Amino acid sequence: MLITRRGLLKACVAAGAGTVAGLGSYGFLDERHALGTTSMTLPVAGLPPALAGLRIGLITDIHRSRWVLAEDVERGVSALMAAQPDLIILGGDYVTWGDREFVAPVAEALAPLSAAHGVFGILGNHDDDHDMPAALSRTGVQVLKDARTRLTIRGETVDLAGIRFWTKRQMDIAPIVRGSAPITILLAHDPRRLAEASALNIPLVLSGHTHGGQVVLPIVGAWAAQKFPVAEGIASRGATTMFVSRGVGTIYVPVRVNCPPEVAVLTLQRG
Questions:
Q1: Which residue would you say has higher pLDDT here, 68 or 1?
Q2: Can you give the pLDDT at residue 13?
Q3: Which residue from 108, 208, 240, 242 has the highest number of Cβ atoms inside 10 Å of its Cβ?
Q4: pLDDT at 21 > cutoff 50
Q5: SS3 call for 41
Q6: Extents of the domains making up the chain
Q7: Are 28 and 259 in contact (CB under 8 A)?
Q8: Residues 6 or more apart whose Cβ sits within 8 Å of residue 55
Q9: In this structure, is the dihedral angle defined by the CA atoms of residues 93, 125, 259 and 53, taken in order, positive or negative?
Q10: What is the pTM of this model?
């Protein structure tokens, strides 16, 4: 049978449309719920020997909404509790667009989280400055809004410095970390704060915000996350190491492709 150029073009278009539809269906029905635990070892400059092996749990970008259900959050909480990290960090964006309907429910879903050295949280660009931190505080989470707190872990001093999404300039971050311990962990929702952290000699940054790109396509990659230092995983600049989590929820479209949701368990090592 003779195949015309027009017929071949129509066939290619139909195949492409079918592929996109299939990916969308898979990403909506399956992958966005396929939460796993990512275990990663992070090199930290100047880490005292006593802190080698310290395990930090990170859960971020929950985006509790009509599309991200309580069951999705509970899976993340259960996964972290099963891993039994020494310290737990909540990385922001607990709801979408500050939706007050889900502020209390997401805080309640996170309430079972506990760790020997505490549970600490920061705010993302979707979180309001009052209701969300108040709801988290009622469950025992210490929310750091442009603030620093000091911990003693295994006889060593560790400072956690948490900044709001809108705190971006080095001159605004500097007062928060001035006089901090040599081992300071910057909790910054936006991974673009890697540059400022490196300039301020902060050894470790924990971030989210990117969702790992949420939809990662062959060749194109994580197109939606191209403006960030890295879409997911480890990045470094100078003596600063950063880890970026893919997070739990979704934004804009309730789909994940080649980018499953995660909670992370990060083991610190001397680097």
A1: 68
A2: 35
A3: 208
A4: no
A5: strand
A6: 34-270
A7: no
A8: 83, 84, 85, 86, 87, 265, 266, 267, 268
A9: negative
A10: 0.90
